[in-house]
Design brief:
4-stranded antiparallel β-sheet; 2 helices; globular
Length: 431
């Protein structure tokens, strides 16, 4: 009599659960654009959602803690002249996000830690190079300020956001619409899927396709008959891939191993309502005290619902096997180093004591003047917002003005308090 051997895995019992109603984000008009991106991007500080907007494209940024009903006048990020198709947070700066649009441009934004009073309309830099809509953007995993965009013109463009320059243009590689792009761990290679049903492995610096149209898959997993596109999210720390069907109401997850059959079905999280999009929290944004290994931000028609994935453990101690050191916010390379051929592993951080997001770090953009490499003669100063020489003194001036205003306000508050005390004594004396 044979006995079935059960495969040992610490992720066999991953448990998915939605948060309570008061921890959701309500009254959000999620975009209705017919595009197959996730429409949502999250990091340890913010959740960003592409929303409906008249007269152009917009997305909303909410601090993670600002749950509940969103004010109808909550400021939006509105700089594009056509619908926003994709957004992506910079992995090396939690206050910087890029957006791609049907207006053929990519914009990079600095998001303040506080909630602004009005819409953000001025990006740090606008990247122009595509001739058709830009539907995909993704940051380089290890090099600072390197951003990749893919457009309806079948072009891949790599940008140095710090200078606003085009680093590389990859053309003649795709004969049809590019569906998705993903970097490998060090950012030395990227893989693309295309409407022509080819998968291409590309070395961007050599500007050549390394491999294409693989003959046989190592594993083939039959899914349901839903016609919605699958949004894959891979966690390299746990080797788990999560598949979220757009228009579906479930999240299926599988463990990837080095031995055959390579892909092992774990479980399915199901709910009643279909998802319009999905955000995936980086590992450093999770609650390690609750054995949380993944967190999704499911978009409904009018709300965003966080879904927490946990591995139940009896002990309250830090679980080393669940949380190996993970990529942190510090880049391992500068853009010029990567372009010159250097590669580096991500700089890892420990999650033993949890991760504390860094304070707001400004992204400075310095445009190079190709006509004149020498600084201008005389006391005249350029007032370009991208001029690094101008930005430093102007920031100091603003800080000095803020300090002066604060002192004035404090003095007035003291004066008002003294007058109120005198009035109170006078009133009591006459009574």
């Amino acid at each position: 009599m044979s006995r079935r051997v059960v495969r040992q895995s610490k992720f066999r019992h991953v448990f998915g659960q939605p948060v309570k109603a008061d921890q959701m984000y309500e009254d959000i008009r999620v975009s209705r654009v017919t595009w197959d991106s996730s429409f949502c991007a999250v990091n340890p500080k913010f959740v960003a959602i592409i929303v409906e907007s008249g007269g152009g494209g917009a997305f909303m940024v909410l601090p993670l803690a600002k749950t509940g009903r969103v004010d109808k006048n909550h400021p939006l990020v509105t700089g594009h002249t056509a619908p926003v198709l994709d957004i992506d947070w910079c992995p090396h700066n939690d206050n910087v996000i890029a957006s791609a649009s049907e207006d053929t441009t990519v914009m990079v934004w600095q998001i303040p830690d506080y909630v602004p009073m009005r819409n953000l309309t001025e990006p740090i830099v606008t990247l122009e190079g595509h001739s058709k809509r830009v539907g995909i953007i993704t940051w380089h995993p290890t090099a600072r300020n390197v951003l990749l965009s893919a457009g309806g013109d079948n072009l891949l463009i790599l940008w140095n956001v710090g200078t606003g320059e085009m680093l590389l243009t990859l053309d003649d590689m795709h004969g049809d619409l590019i569906y998705n792009v993903c970097w490998n761990r060090t950012g030395s290679l990227l893989v693309t899927t295309c409407k022509d049903k080819h998968v291409r492995l590309i070395d961007p610096r050599k500007q050549q396709v390394v491999a294409e149209n693989f003959e046989e898959p190592v594993a083939l997993q039959e899914m349901d008959t839903s016609n919605g596109v699958l949004l894959p999210f891979y966690d390299p720390d746990s080797s788990i891939v999560y598949l979220c069907g757009k228009g579906d109401s479930s999240i299926r997850y599988f463990e990837i191993t080095a031995e055959a059959p390579y892909v092992h079905y774990l479980s399915t999280y199901s709910s009643k309502e279909p998802q319009r999009g999905m955000g995936f929290m980086p590992k450093r944004g999770l609650d390690v005290s609750k054995c949380e290994i993944a967190r999704f931000f499911k978009l409904h028609e009018r709300k965003c619902e966080p879904i927490v994935m946990t591995v139940p453990r009896k002990s309250d101690l830090f679980q080393d096997d669940l949380y190996p050191d993970t990529p942190g916010p510090e880049p391992a390379l500068e853009a010029a180093e990567w372009l010159a051929g250097k590669d580096a592993e991500p700089i890892l951080v420990s999650l033993r004591d949890g991760y504390v997001p860094l304070k707001n770090r400004e992204l400075k953009v310095t445009r190079k003047n190709i006509l004149d490499n020498k600084p201008p003669v005389g006391p005249r100063r350029s007032h370009s917002t991208c001029d690094a020489n101008f930005s430093r003194p102007s920031l100091e001036d603003l800080l000095e003005e803020i300090r002066s205003l604060r002192q004035t306000v404090q003095a007035q508050e003291k004066r008002i308090s003294d007058l109120e005390n005198k009035l109170c004594k006078f009133t009591n004396g006459t009574a």
